[in-house]
Design a protein that fits this description.
This protein has 405 residues and is mainly alpha-helical. It folds into 3 domains: 45 residues; 92 residues, Receptor-associated Protein (Up-down Bundle); 236 residues, Up-down Bundle (Receptor-associated Protein). The chain is 73% helix and 7% strand. Strands 2-1-3 form a 3-stranded antiparallel beta sheet. α2 packs antiparallel against α3, α7 runs parallel beside α16 and α15 runs antiparallel to α16. The relative contact order is 0.07.
């Protein structure tokens, strides 16, 4: 027999919840047993017995956008079916594989049971439910909670899909870069030293490219154990710097000015995300100024965030949204023209959705185009790089050949 910890309420008194332990062969039998005794289970979890547990996470159990989207979609469906929020939260959480999400929802249920509004209870878990999520749920509590949750799910699903497309496009160049680095280290460790003996026997001075290669090889072979420390330390220092306000501003400016269309792609990603977020907030009845304050940090770009906050100040002083954002000069002209048209027609929310759809489609097309261009470009780049090393190694050979003649 296994032991299960449960939380349930009596069918004749839903407001009174109890938590206790029940023994049963499995979870299904435990549920049947509780129902037969007149209880309505909210949660049933196996009790971990003594001894070492193998259920340990090596990596942090971070809640991803697709996890939250799935949870939101389930919760919306359950709420729309008339199931009480407490029961709906429990059922939706059980459908998730993320332990951190389940733990957060358990605490949310506990707070809601004590009379706290759902949005306020979620706000106590900012690592799971961010400010945008909480604001939309709060707007839905006063009217259409199901609609707010469905809009949240749709927005999170679109953002998750966009991230997958971009990351998928980056897999190949990152893989090639790692492969090239491994080849370079192998050449420095084994190939270049084999040529050094020939160079020493020749006794002539080495050309500058060859001397640079030999020096680099000596450094790598002498201090190879420092490479992981340098790479790891550099990566850690870069991440710390990027989290500072100045570092994030500099890095985001650099990203937006990358060549080969990468900077333009970054700008389109941010435009689509901001437009989608602002449209979702407006559709949920959140006031425009509050929507801009909420949407600003979700852009995930310090340059754009500062521009949005400045535009919000201009809007507060009576300026149209499109004019304030156009002056910031961080969004594409087409997006601003579409927004201006929506303002004139009194359909800002609808036009923001069209802006989001337009730039989401452009991002998808640009990612496909970049993937098709990047593969041959990377191959050419690797060929030139390896060729330069080979030529540097053989330059002294030509000099030796001339002397022999």
């Amino acid at each position: 027999m296994s032991r299960f910890k449960y939380t349930a309420y009596r069918s004749d008194n839903p407001s009174n919840q109890i938590s206790d332990i029940v023994e049963a062969p499995n979870r299904q039998e435990a549920t049947r047993l509780l129902i037969s005794k007149g209880f309505q289970p909210l949660s049933i979890e196996p009790v971990k017995e003594g001894g070492l547990s193998m259920d340990m996470d090596i990596l942090p159990d971070k809640v991803k956008p697709q996890d939250l989207a799935f949870f939101s979609r389930q919760l919306a469906t359950l709420v729309g079916a008339g199931i009480p929020v407490m029961t709906a939260l429990d059922i939706a959480a059980r459908g998730s594989k993320r332990k951190s999400l389940k733990l957060a929802v358990d605490e949310v249920r506990s707070d809601v049971n004590q009379g706290m509004p759902l949005s306020q209870a979620m706000a106590r878990h900012p690592k799971v439910f961010n400010y945008l999520y909480v604001s939309l749920v709060k707007a839905g509590e006063s009217g259409d909670l199901q609609g707010a949750l469905n809009r949240l799910a749709e927005m999170l699903e679109l953002q998750s899909q966009q991230r997958r497309e971009i990351r998928g496009a980056m897999v190949y160049p990152i893989g090639v870069a790692i492969f090239t680095f491994v080849i370079l280290i192998a050449m420095m460790m084994f190939v270049v030293p084999a040529f050094q003996g020939i160079f020493a026997q020749a006794g002539s001075s080495l050309p500058a490219p060859t001397q640079l290669l030999v020096t680099a090889s000596d450094l790598v072979r002498s201090y190879w154990y420092l490479l992981p420390l340098v790479i790891g330390g550099g990566g850690y220092a870069f991440k710390r710097w990027k989290r500072t306000d100045d570092g994030k501003m500099i890095w985001d400016k650099f990203r937006m000015n990358l060549p080969l269309g990468l900077g333009a792609l970054a700008g389109k990603v941010v435009t689509a995300r901001f437009a989608r977020t602002l449209a979702t907030l407006q559709s949920s009845g959140v006031p425009l100024l509050q929507s801009m304050e909420i949407a600003a940090p979700t852009a995930d770009n310090k340059v754009i965030e500062v521009a949005i906050r400045k535009a919000a100040y201009e809007v507060q002083n009576g300026r149209p949204l499109s004019a304030a954002l156009r002056e910031a000069d961080v969004f594409p002209d087409l997006a601003m023209s579409m927004l201006e048209s929506g303002e004139r027609a009194g359909r800002v929310g609808e036009m923001l959705n069209k802006v989001a759809e337009t730039y989401e489609a452009e991002v998808a097309n640009n990612v496909k185009a970049l993937k098709s261009i990047m593969e041959p470009a990377m191959m050419v780049g690797i060929g030139l790089f390896i060729g330069a090393i080979v030529v540097s190694l053989y330059l002294p050979m030509f000099s030796i050949y001339d002397k022999i003649k």
